[in-house]
From TrEMBL:
Name of the protein: L-rhamnose isomerase / sugar isomerase
SUPFAM superfamilies for this protein: Xylose isomerase-like
Transmembrane stretches, start-end: none
Gene3D superfamilies: Divalent-metal-dependent TIM barrel enzymes
Lineage: Bacteria, Pseudomonadati, Bacteroidota, Cytophagia, Cytophagales
GO molecular function, one term: isomerase activity
Record keywords: Isomerase, Manganese, Metal-binding
Amino acid sequence: MKIEKYQIDQHNYLYEKQHERKFNFLAETLEQEGINVNTIVTKLADLQIAIPSWALGTGGTRFGRFSGAGEPRSLEEKIEDIGLLHALNRSSGAISLHIPWDIPENTDAIKSLASSYDIVFDAVNSNTFQDQKTQNYSYKFGSLSHSQKEVRQQAVNHNIEVIKYGEMLGSKALTVWLSDGSCFPAQQNFKKALQRTLDSLQEIYACLPTDWQIFIEYKPYEPNFYSTVIQDWGTSFLLANKLGHQAYTLVDLGHHLPNTNIEQIVATLMMEGKLGGFHFNDSKYGDDDLTVGSIKPYQLFLIFNELVEGMEDKNTQNPVPAWMIDASHNVKDPLEDLLQSVEAIKIAYAQALIINREMLWEAQDNNDAVKAQEIVQSAFRTDVRPLLAEARKRSSAALSPLDLFRKLEVRKRLVTERGKLAIATGL
Ligand code: PSV
Ligand code: MN
Ligand code: MN
């Protein structure tokens, strides 16, 4: 199924007047405050957030999985789903693959299918946290950190193979997330496990094409519950520094212990030019992988405040991070959920963009905590949604993507095409 331009136009026609009234009012207010609205709208239109191939089916928990109907059955259908999202919001123009959950058999055909939807390939993800039928050694006790050389080698080779797939598809980055760690005190020698991980990563790094990046994801626990080898940003940063200039830390919002100050981590990494990737989701307790902005929108905004500060800082060498949504759960229609997540990310971005940074720096330099809070909270409390809608309008996307998704009965049509029992591969 494809969403056609005339369907977007018809929908936008219905909402146009209402949108213009809201946008003009907001634009005038912001311009009076010295904000260049056009620049902000362009930045919003330019922001593309990659969709992981595993977020298109209903996620499971370790207790059960309740598949939705009409879910994609193949990589081709996952690309089709992202094509639908991108047609609706023009902000989801990239897919991130997890190998071997997605094995592109004919990479040329997959590449041209994706480009027919205006979709490019974002970072490719390796998977050494599950055993595959064809592999010789088990990852039960680790992969890149494993005590046995053969297991480490198998995991290294897998990562090199993933790079090869990525090269064929036009990806420019490899993301490594390890579940390696231990469940019980003294089960693992921390120092040796970390050293072996570094050695393995060095082997992978040596095979990285010169125009590629490698992102190292950290996570404090799960599935190992006593320790993980790459437990926090400091460990990831240490590894990235040891590897070299193509290696970066990846921040996944769900990979922190409760109350961690993630915005400060972002600021520190950007100061060092080492923030390479970002996985968006939201959580109440742990790595809950819930819809972005559904639980802690203020935290998301404070994170974007630091991201904008870092991206606008001409003195730091931080590349534009690779943005991705890493969410998946059991309750919502995955496509509706992703539309909501993209919207939440862009709202936080827009709110951060309208912060008067000069005034904020002045308040900070004067230790005026009250003024600083007023400045950021006035941005946070501004309803910036008309700016997002305007960015969509200028990109020929739908003024209200979720509304159009429902009006067109997209899921119902997908169920007719794919059947009730279709189950996405992956998780
Ligand atoms: C692990 O929790 C993670 O955040 C990593 O990014 C994985 O690749 C992804 O989730 C999918 O399980
Ligand atoms: Mn992640
Ligand atoms: Mn995660």
